[in-house]
Amino acid sequence: MPVRPSRRAASRWPVALAILALLFVTGFTVVRTNVLGMGDRLDRLAARVETFIDPPPHRSTLPTVVVTAAPSPSATPRITPGPSATPTPSPTPIVRAPVDVAIVDDHAAVFASQLTKEDCAVAGTQMVLTLLGLGNSSAAFQQEIKGRIGEWESWEDSHNGGWGPAAVAQALAAYGEPGYEIRAYATHTDALRDAALAISETDKPVVLFPWWGAHTWVMTGYRADADPALFDDAAISGAYVLDPWFPRVSSIWGPSDGPGSFETLAELERNWPAFQGPPGYEHIGPGWTRPEGAYPDRDGRFVILVPTTPLTGS
Questions:
Q1: Would you state the torsion angle of the CA atoms of residues 61, 148, 170, 184, taken in this order, to the nearest 10 degrees?
Q2: Cβ(182)–Cβ(62) under 8 Å?
Q3: Residue 293 and residue 295: Cα distance in Å, rounded?
Q4: Which residues contact 19 (CB under 8 A, 6 or more apart)?
Q5: What is the largest CA-CA distance in the chain?
Q6: CA torsion angle for 99, 101, 105, 106 (degrees, to 10)?
Q7: What is the pTM of this model?
Q8: Which has the closest alpha carbon to 214: 80, 55, 44?
Q9: Do 127 and 246 touch, CB atoms closer than 8 A?
Q10: Is the confidence at residue 259, as pLDDT, over 90?
Q11: How far apart are CA 105 and CA 72, in angstroms?
Q12: What is the pairing mode between strands 302-307 and 180-185?
């Protein structure tokens, strides 16, 4: 027996069709010229219409771990003491020295540009899998990953539907890389330092969510004034990044950088803002700030996807 649509679902269609008609009439000229940012606004409106008609499922997904601020860092190196009953020779002094860490020799070989302007998370997932030997950088593989989003999307992860940090982690697990954890930090500095520490401890990349949570970067290394695995107060001065937006130019963020570019701390802070939005976007706050609704464990925080298991053989 066929199931009749609910009255609520049926009532959505006249509104949706009216909005779609408006987009059809006004969209071509406005999007082409992006007059006063109206092209971007129409894109967001179109996404809301799509979500209204076909909302993402309400189902459980991976949690976001809120990381509390650590105690004040110490310049004393970390040393694991031996058993107190057994005399041990004095350890060799640990010398504080700058470090330059990169887990990729050839960034161009693992780079994949997003196929459409909405596919940054898909391309980011693809690059992590390629880097770990679980995928490749082809357009066909990106399309394959993209086509499986129905297995992982949830309203909790992305109110717009599609890809959020949890979907990325679940996709990585589906292709053989479990153990990535979503973490949210109160400060940009804490997030970046933990990302660097995770890279050193696991030899795996970290996924960042810059542009107020609207974009995806893959962090493959960093520079610091000391090894963060040895010194709690190590200061990170920048990161090596794979940006799937390359070679595009953003109307807000400017030209994207090529595969494996070193992003200074100032550039990271600009793209992963710890401040209010620019003119015309003053309503946007620091950290994760999404227009589609509230994310209690992410809002105002700096969100990253962190590997928790070391690379086999490392």
A1: -70
A2: yes
A3: 7
A4: 45, 49
A5: 82
A6: -110
A7: 0.79
A8: 44
A9: no
A10: yes
A11: 35
A12: antiparallel
**95-106 pLDDT per residue, tens:** 899 999 999 999
Q: Which amino acid is present at 129?
A: L
The amino acid that residue 271 corresponds to is N
Residue with tokens 């970046």: 192
Separation CA 188–CA 197 (nearest Å): 14
Residue 204, both tokens: 């795996």
Beta-carbon contacts of 184 under 8 Å, excluding residues fewer than 6 positions away, are 64, 65, 66, 67, 288, 297, 298, 301, 302, 303
Token duo for residue 268: 């990271």
Please, are residues 206 and 307 in contact by the beta-carbon 8 Å criterion?
yes
Q: Which two tokens stand for residue 226?
A: 């000391």
pLDDT at position 23: 47
Element housing 224 (H / E): strand 217-224
At residue 279, the 3 state secondary structure works out as coil
Dist. CA 96–CA 146, nearest whole Å: 44
> Which stretches of 132-206 are DSSP H helices?
139-146, 165-174, 188-202
The whole-chain average pLDDT of the chain stands at: 82
Q: For 32-67, what is each residue's pLDDT tens digit?
A: 344 444 444 444 455 455 555 567 788 889 999 999
Q: Which residues pair with 218 in a beta bridge?
A: 207, 242
Alpha-carbon span 218 to 242, nearest angstrom: 5
Q: At residue 191, what are phi and psi to the nearest 5 degrees?
A: -65, -45
List own/partner pairs for 87-96 with CB under 8 A and 24 or more apart.
94/230, 96/225, 96/226, 96/231
In sequence order, the 6+-apart residues with CB closer than 8 A to the CB of 240 are 102, 104, 107, 219, 220, 221, 222, 260, 261, 262, 263
Could you tell me the two tokens for 223? 């520079």
